[in-house]
Write a structure and sequence with these properties.
alpha/beta; Quinone Oxidoreductase, Chain A, domain 1; Rossmann fold; seven-stranded mixed β-sheet; 27% helix
């Protein structure tokens, strides 16, 4: 099979001929039609992810057709159109993953290939209203956004939500999910064009975080926010504390701008704020996310679709951060 292969960290992906995986007991092989990209793939390439193990075929997100089944797997799975949950072996505690938890695409070979091997418990029927390319954008980002909004953030209909860094995959999915759940959603971005495009997805408004005191202007216009989602951290995190309403929840699921250099703690405890961390999610949360997407007929935003042999170029596009929506590799 053809695969985009990372031989060592800090090296470009190479298109190689790799051995087609064979399913073991409880496993299946999926003939992939599309694979979505995530910033995790960039971090793996740079050796910045915990528990690094290379060489590896990266890629966490994928959708395709079941081509082989292993011992103990019903043959009725053969030929089914599926989407893959990349959260492997979360464990029994819904609040925190267990010691065997992994994410598809490192250490196990992932979806930047024509075939991938996964446990049958990680398969779900592809939502019928989605193309393979659209479905391949959902797994990691959709699961992360769902848990951040509903499990950790405890979102309720009618609440005011602020989502930072709109344009990226998780943030856009969170915007779509929150709007569909009845929330009033605002966004932030460093691009006025992305702010305008977010309005077409249901955002009520937004602010360019490159504007001084943007959070004060936004709060003056509509009041503080009940729930804030952030993946950046860094020095901008203090602005989110200022934008939070008393009793609000701030959920962080990333740190692309690094650690928070200074935080005025009295603003946190006098406002009775909850600051919550989250990453990925449980099998039940993945299933709930898919059911919600299907029941509301949500369509993820795809920025570009590139062929598998341009996987390295796709990672460089993702690293630039100029996309609005997900980058996808078309595999067949």
């Amino acid at each position: 099979m053809k695969a985009a292969y990372l031989e060592a960290t800090h090296q470009p992906l190479q298109l190689i001929d790799a051995e087609t995986p064979q399913p073991g007991p409880g496993e299946v092989v999926v003939r992939l039609h599309a694979a979505g990209l995530n910033h995790r793939d960039v971090w793996v390439q740079k050796g910045m992810y915990p528990g690094m193990r290379v060489p590896v075929i990266p890629g966490s997100d994928g959708a395709g057709v079941v081509s082989e089944v292993g011992e103990g797997v019903r043959t009725s799975w053969l030929g089914r159109h599926v989407i893959i949950n990349p959260a492997l072996d979360w464990g029994d505690n819904p609040r925190f993953y267990g010691r065997n938890f992994r994410i598809l695409g490192m250490p196990e070979n992932g979806t930047f290939a024509e075939f991938v091997k996964v446990g049958v418990k990680n398969l779900h029927p592809k939502p019928e209203h989605l193309s393979f390319e659209e479905a391949a954008t959902l797994p990691l980002g959709g699961l992360t956004a769902w848990r951040a909004l509903f499990s950790r953030g405890r979102l309720r209909s009618g609440e005011r939500v602020l989502i930072s860094g709109v344009g990226g995959g998780v943030a856009l999915l969170a915007l779509q999910l929150a709007v569909a759940a009845g929330a009033d959603v605002w966004v932030s971005s460093g691009s006025d064009e992305k702010l305008e495009r977010a309005k077409t997805l249901g955002a009520m408004g937004g602010a360019n975080y490159r504007t001084p005191k943007w959070e004060k202007t936004l709060v003056a216009q509509m009041g503080g926010f009940d729930l804030i989602l952030d993946s950046a951290g860094g020095s901008s995190f203090a602005s989110l504390v200022d934008a939070a309403a008393p009793g609000a929840r701030i959920v962080t699921y990333g740190g692309t701008l690094g650690n928070v250099p200074e935080l005025i703690l009295p603003k946190v405890f006098f406002k009775q704020l909850d600051i919550l961390g989250t990453t990925m999610g449980t099998e039940a949360e993945f299933n709930d996310m898919l059911q919600f997407v299907e029941s509301r007929q949500l369509r993820p935003v795809v920025d570009q679709v590139l062929p598998l042999d341009e996987a390295e170029a796709a990672l460089r596009l993702l690293e630039k951060g100029e996309q609005f929506g997900k980058l996808v590799l078309k595999i067949k």
